[in-house]
Write a structure and sequence with these properties.
The complex is a heterodimer of chains A (353) and B (118). Chain A is of the alpha+beta class and 353 residues long. Chain A folds into two domains: 3-106, 2-Layer Sandwich (Beta-Lactamase); 155-349, 2-Layer Sandwich (Alpha-Beta Plaits). Chain A is built from eleven helices and 13 strands. In chain A, a hairpin with a 5-residue loop joins strand 9 and strand 10. The radius of gyration of chain A is 42 Å and the shape is rod-shaped. With 118 residues, chain B is mainly α. Chain B has one domain (10-116): Globins (Globin-like, Orthogonal Bundle). In chain B, helix 2 packs across helix 3 (41-55), helix 2 crosses helix 5 and helix 5 packs antiparallel against helix 6. The longest helix of chain B is centred in the N-terminal third of the chain and has 18 residues, at 11-28. Chain B is globular. Classes of the chains: A alpha+beta (353), B mainly alpha (118).
Chain lengths: 353, 118
């Protein structure tokens, strides 16, 4: 067998579609078996554009005249499968006649893979968005339970080192006759009322640099001076306390359920830490908390009580009226004061009552 | 967390081969293939990718309602569903999936029978 015969056999049998075109008429001079398998047997008179109706003949001529080359893609159905073929035209001369060599590569699999990657990446991206949203919800929940700096520490190290904060000021609040309200009101109403009130307290506290630590039933505890130290921590809780009372008074005027709260404020040291392993909670405890709770016990409804230490720290803006020496628990006694905001200095704070 | 079959059999890099193989076999099959006659290639591939991913516990999942809605306009009969179950099992076996796992996948597939068969 001659080299030419071998070459022709090879050209007929390879998995690439090959055709020779007369460039003047765009008719076929030769095509191999793969080409006719894909596109059918062209008639002797058939032109390229008869078989590939979407082909832009002008662009083909321009490309071949310009750089001698033109590439495009075409899709067709072979049985029910969509085939995609990359077509590469190259200008050539055959005994002085202008011809083009057309080489067709089957890129069907590449197109199918591209579609699969598109499909998969869209699924993954959607899942990623969902995971991100869930992560944000978890973060939001945890940020409700602990200050951001503590949360960051917990996220990074998986644990939180208990820390002493000194000095800070603590505000504790509870409601008079809470047991009576619970007995007479629908549980749903109680929860919704507390939710409303505590949310308002949280907002007010935030304005004054207080960090709400927890609520236990009708007891609400907020602290100023932690996790970041604040020089005016005592004034912060006192100002928040006044606003709490003012908010409740206004609310009571327009709501059927009348809430009477008592507030105790104190200053000193607290320890802040995440407590628990499975059901963990961020908590603060220590002398300032214990003391604030005991001071609160001596407060009259809708008033703020304080001990000497914190009363002196806020005396520039709060007048005090002694309630006498009281038992502060653990065998300790101390003078307790009812604190009232000094009227003429209120205007700047908008606290006039 | 328990490993899904999707993870067990090598994640998307391996599952992608199952998907394309299944695609080839479905189009070649004269029972199931005609359902895809007039469907765009990208849509069929998208469908197969999600179908295999969801069956193997990959990043796709469909509610029963979604499956029912997607197949409502097709006249799918028992023999079509059975053919697809056979092709699915063969494809998974040819890609080295263990018989117990294949059984679990085909069972999960079969549980959706009533959602798509007329």
């Amino acid at each position: 067998m001659s080299i030419e015969a071998i070459n022709e056999q090879l050209l007929r049998a390879i998995g690439v579609g090959v055709a020779l075109l007369d460039l003047e008429e765009l008719t076929f001079r030769f095509h191999n078996d793969t080409f006719s398998d894909w596109f059918g047997e062209p008639d002797p008179q058939a032109r390229l554009t008869d078989i590939f109706s979407a082909l832009d003949a002008a662009a083909l001529h321009a490309g071949l005249n310009d750089g001698g080359r033109y590439t495009t893609e075409t899709s067709f159905k072979l049985r029910r499968r969509t085939m995609t073929v990359a077509m590469d035209f190259n200008r050539a001369l055959d005994g002085g006649q202008r011809i083009a060599v057309l080489v067709c590569q089957n890129i069907t699999r590449i197109k199918e893979l591209e579609s699969m990657i598109d499909s998969y990446s869209m699924m993954v991206e959607r899942n990623t968005r969902e995971i991100k949203r869930e992560k944000e919800q978890v973060e939001k929940l945890l940020l409700n339970m602990m200050p951001r700096s503590v949360y960051e520490e917990y996220k990074t190290f998986g644990v939180v080192t208990p820390r002493l904060y000194d000095p800070v000021s603590v505000l504790t609040l509870d409601f008079s006759d809470f047991a009576g309200l619970v007995a007479t009101l629908d549980p749903g109403v109680i929860v919704s009322e507390l939710n409303d009130i505590y949310s308002a307290f949280d907002r007010i506290g935030e304005q004054f640099g207080c960090e709400r630590i927890k609520t236990i039933g009708d007891a609400y505890i907020t602290v100023s001076g932690m996790p970041d130290a604040a020089p005016d921590h005592a004034m912060s809780v006192a100002n928040a306390a006044v606003r709490f009372l003012r908010y409740l008074k206004q609310r009571n005027d327009s709501h059927p359920v009348k809430w009477q709260c008592r507030i105790g404020i104190s200053t000193g040291a607290v320890i802040g830490s995440v407590v628990g392993v499975q059901k963990y909670i961020y908590d603060v405890f220590g002398p300032a908390v214990t003391r604030a709770v005991r001071i609160r016990a001596h407060a009259e409804p809708m008033t703020i009580s304080a001990d000497t230490t914190i009363a002196e720290m806020i005396e520039a803006k709060f007048s005090r009226e002694s309630l006498g020496t009281k038992d502060l628990g653990g065998g300790e006694e101390g003078e307790i004061f009812r604190m009232d905001v000094i009227a003429e200095q209120n205007s700047g704070y908008g606290l006039a009552q | 967390m328990e490993q899904t079959l999707f993870q067990k059999y090598g994640g998307f890099s391996k599952v992608s081969r199952i998907v394309l193989d299944l695609y080839d076999r479905l189009l070649d099959d004269d029972e199931v293939g005609p359902f895809f006659d007039e469907v765009d290639m990208a849509r069929i591939v998208d469908h197969q990718t999600k179908f295999v991913s969801s069956l193997l516990g990959g990043p796709a999942s469909y509610t029963d309602d979604q499956i029912a809605k997607m197949h409502r306009h097709l006249a799918i009969h028992t023999r079509h569903f059975d053919s697809l179950a056979t092709i699915l099992a063969e494809t998974l076996a040819d890609h080295g999936m263990e018989p117990d796992d294949i059984e679990a996948v085909v069972k999960a597939f079969d549980q959706r029978r009533n959602l798509v068969v007329d």
